[in-house]
Amino acid sequence: MRSARRLVPPVVFACLLLAGCKSTSLGTSTPSGSGSPGAGAPGKAGPAPAIATGAGPQRNYTVQQQPAADSCHYRYEHGEPLEDPKCTPGAVSPAVTQANLKSTICRKGGYTSGVRPSAYVTGKEKRLNAASYGFTGKMSEAEYDHLISLQLGGDPNDDRNLWVEPADPGHKDSQGVNNRKDPVETKLHTAVCAGRITLAAAQQAIVTDWTTALSRLGLQ
Fold it and tell me: How is residue 35 annotated by DSSP?
């Protein structure tokens, strides 16, 4: 009776005898370099977090609840005040999209005046938000600012998109509100309407850091 034992092929047998020969399963193979990368391999940065969407323009705005007093903290870049991203991460309006720019923020005759909340509403919100940020300066010298401006499709009255912005370094008293963020927003708006950058790119650059938004998008 012939033996039922299978003979190991000579080539495989020789391979097993050689020092350093990789162990393999018969009939299977693993391509070199397959599988997950090593723990030390550099990873790619993930996509930026999505910006929240607010309620959009309203016929009648109401005073929005603000974060608790002293719960928000300013950051500073080159002396310029930046918002606390935990309190003011930004919010966009669902009424403004890349597809309808010509009929919204880029339309002739303007857009922002028709969606801006009344001074009665924003005045109350500004005082509450000043307490949130622990702002103790002159209210007349600070702006109740839309982080994502209305001309960039920011939500008009979402508390996540509004903050009391202190005056710039070197600002002199009694000059009123005047900050360097406004010209940045205007340049971004011009670039969006000219098709040089997308609406989403402009919005993301502003919430990331308005002081670097222009250079980040190659507009400076």
Answer: S
